[in-house]
Queue: 2 jobs
Job 1
Amino acid sequence: MQYKAKVYVTLKPSILDPQGRTVERALTHLNHQNVEGVRIGKYIELTLEGERADVEAQLRDISVNVLSNPIMEDVRFELEEQAVEQSA
Amino acid sequence: MKTAVIQFPGSNCDADALHAAGNVIGQDATFVWHTDTQLPDVDVVLVPGGFSYGDHLRSGAIAARSPIMTAIRAFADAGGYVIGICNGFQILTEAGLLPGALTRNGHLHFTCQPVRLRVERTNTPFTSAYTSGQTVTIPVAHGEGNYYADANTLDRLEGEGQVVFRYVDNPNGSLNDIAGIVNDRRNVLGMMPHPERAVEHLLGSADGLGVFQSLLSRVGA
């Protein structure tokens, strides 16, 4: 089975996010006075093939040990079955 | 003293590092490519600055998982001396050889300037040529040099005397003004400023020489 994974990496709340803060300030200057708490993260897509349990374990390993740095980032992922076209 | 300077795709301070450890100090220095799985017979491994893998994903993240790092980890575990400078510091934290992480500079700008550092510890193989509390001028050039570690790690670093260099005027927002640290065994050093760019008076400062002279006096010619 083929799976599509969506991985979201965000800075831990305790880490200063200067990029988010700059964007927040810009939004205020653009008169969006009710916006706060802007945080900027990363979105990573990948496709994996295999049994669901194996793929899930592998994705957890990739997400925690490669795609994010647990010292400064949080990571979460979603895994969904991908329809594969059957060849005749 | 024999030094290996590791080259990753995107390293750009490798030649300066080789020049400092080789020509200026007058010792053997050689390049080692990142896909190699073994180190030559050396006393010191230098992980140079630059933009390994274009800093994609995170600074140093991909380089930290390249083949040569397994050999560097074994070398460090055996007590070998390892220095990571700038991107090399980022690589060593990503590889878990040093605690903490380097994040975006607080002001978001790439900063490239000579900075003043205070030498906090001279009881390391990298700093014995300095005097305690000495102020030195060494350039920085980085966009992600903001040192971060959780409160427990920071307490341990301070308590164990592992903060080796501190900024006099913090250029990036680093916690506790940290510019360079050693591991608990004191055989691995990571620093954001570039000592290899300050080894000849012609370049404006020779204050970085002390790092190389300290190692030379430790391991011998």
Job 2
Amino acid sequence: MTSPYAPHTDAEAQAMLDAVGVDDIEALFNVPDSVAFDGEFGIQSRGEREARREAAKLLGRNDDLTEFLGRGHYAHYVPSVVDDLASRSEFLTSYTQYQPEVTQGFLQALFEYQSMLVELTGLDVANCSMYDEATALGEAATLAQRVRSVSGETVLVPDHLREDKRAVLENYADGPGLSVESYPMADGQADVDALAEAVDEDVVMVYAETPTVRGVIEERLADIGALADDHDALFCLGTDPVALALLERPADVGADVVVGDAASLGTGTAYGFGLGMFATREEFLRQVPGRLVGASEDGEGRRAYTLTLQTREQHIRKERATSNICTNQAWVALRAAIHAAWLGPDGLVELAEDCVTRPRDLAARLDDVVGVQAPVHGGHHFREFVARTDQPARAVADDLAGEGYAVHTVGEHLIQVSATEVTAEAEDGLVGALTEVAK
Amino acid sequence: MTTYDQASWADEDGERYEPLLSEKATETVDIEDSPLPDELTRDSLELPAPAEPEIARHYTRLSQMNYGVESGPVPLGSCTMKYNPSFTEDITALPAAAVHPDRPDSTVQGTLALCYRLQDYLGRIGGMDAVTLQPPAGAAGEFTGIRVAKAYHEHNDDERSEVVIPDSAHGTNFATAAMAGYSVVELPSGEDGRVDIEALEAAVGDETAALMLTNPNTLGLFERDIEEIADIVHDAGGLLYYDGANLNALLGRARPGDMGFDVMHYNVHKTFATPHGGGGPGAGPVGVTEELAPFLPDPHVRERDDGDGRGDYEHYRPAHSIGKVHGYYGNWPVLVKAFAYISRLGDSGLADASAKAVLNANYLAERIPYDVPFGPFHHEFVASAGEQDAADVAKGMLDHGVHPPTTKWPETVPEALMTEPTEGESKRSLDQLAAAFEAVHGEDDGTLASAPRRTAAGRIDQVSAARNPRLSWQALDSDD
């Protein structure tokens, strides 16, 4: 078939060929015979209806489970207005804003997104996105190495860290010759005394998370920040915008860089689709990776926005750029900004408070189930908690999946449960199912 | 009434602009009586608090001050900004597409089946033996590919320190090589705009880990000596890396794998028509030969063969995997769109898309008044604005209702206007583009210097934006 998205009529194509001065389009392909391909991929063309049905049928093979899953990737209710506005084609099908006079709309939206992160983190500068939290962490490590006044080659991360995140960090760390080492955790939080032993002059960055991957709110962030500072290492904090609405401001605990996944606003689960957050202090502005939108003026003195400080970026600086990032997650940032605006500060704080009370209450209910103790860790939780099961955790999780519920397994007898407003109606069902399978 | 007039909020003190959300309605919430102790919480939070109707109008106005592919042609060379069919959006929004990444494989067989099919499609299209979907953008694909190349060399106890890149290559190639710890050897282009074989022979050697190349190249020219280029690189022990930015020009005519490339990335958001989203999300799957497959990122999707009832597909860790390049599995919604697009077009539709893209580029190159060196072209060409400033030409074109081409790049062509119309443009819209080039070509420098005049904002002061960075509304406040 001809491409359904090429508008040429036969007569127009012929007129164009005449203008170019060839008889046949194939004459324009300058491919030597020795590497020419016969055109057969073996992929059948389909009508739009068939293509839709095929994809829907394939995806229909997924089990329909209620997901009490988190550990870094969260589902919150996304209001319809986010989809509606972000899907306007002037946003969705536009390019990166290299011609700012015709992309003021997207530039302003990204400027607003940056501003929201500045308010949430208390830091001076936020970029307008990285791919996800893991890659943002990788970029933070390379930034730390560039800005540190004395040499060193170690990045310290918590022992309880998603293996995926660590694996990405290691890939980013390898080029500049950094090594990634971990410090111990105690009861779901950083073991600050052990961390004090681990930090030395070789450390360029100390990374901590709040909430931690086990859902515990880190209580000694300022101490961790001070330890990093004492050794001229950067303090990088991993978190997310919903948590930041309630928890102490990263700037107030000495964070030099904040990374995280802001897809918790504006985007559903989407199989791990992310929105890397990256904020830092003004001092490091010229070392920031990724795009920055700045306010300026047009020729008539009207306020206008533009991509700025592009001399840090790969298309100008090439191998001396702060990062190779080009296409980022701009549209996802637009979604997060619309969602945050829809919630407003009241709604965002309420959502964050719900992330504290809901898991606390659910953990108390699960603790009453025979064969389950929850939560395993002391302290305060955010969105999720770890529970101990008398039965092997894998068997408990498999049996729960059979009943229509997905939970994590994080140890031989440890499961992890994440609860937000989107799982609220399923909590009774989960408690009931666990009562059956945990005995 | 122009869209800017519709979008402008007010006319106070002579300033007219769409106000920031924070200027419309901001509230401060004090954090007290929270379920956490005070020492763990912030004191207050100040954010915009508009009502939903205000949000709807605000973002609708912003969209009216923005130009996308559905607004008109976007002939940005190397970016392949083609029409994005609507139906792929619906598929991405299916409830079954929204699953958590930590679900066990046996419960997401549909997701894995789609990944497997897309891996297979991309492998066939690129002539590659294995494809990973994990890289979340083209540059992330480059990083993945170069990491794979590095792991391959190290596995063979063959440490190498250099990556060779033509001077006309994308900036990402250089940045990627540096990020992976390599030093860059820049390869000067030959007089015909192609790789200079003698220069290549001088550039490669025992330290060459890879040559990064796009074919057709940035000037839209097919590297006809590609087999000789491959031999030179391979004889030196290096690998040949294909930058997929220009793959739209080759669909069904040639495949990187057949040309001797060992590793490549696909810009599915270019070639396979997924919307660019104002700068992402994209996706940059990477294809490799069988030899390099054991080094691909973890996890990879494969078919299961033991039939134990846990489904037909599973994730696994390739034997010598480089690890991960994204926290989860990459930009899944973008991959769904690419799958749906490829599935819709199939062999003949993809080949036709490429044919029309090439026809459009050559037709437009014929029509424009600027000097276009070399040719014939694949899907893009680079004209030179000559005595005119290419940036001024671009601003002038904005006033004619079209998006200008990529400007001032590649640096090998003076005042470059790098133009790629894509197959989505009709003869009529190409004629409209040609007319815009024609009009601007005839304008004097003084007129162009004050362009654009018919857009939401006039020419923007880039210098003061960089000298006095104001990157948030908080910074604006402090400025007042």
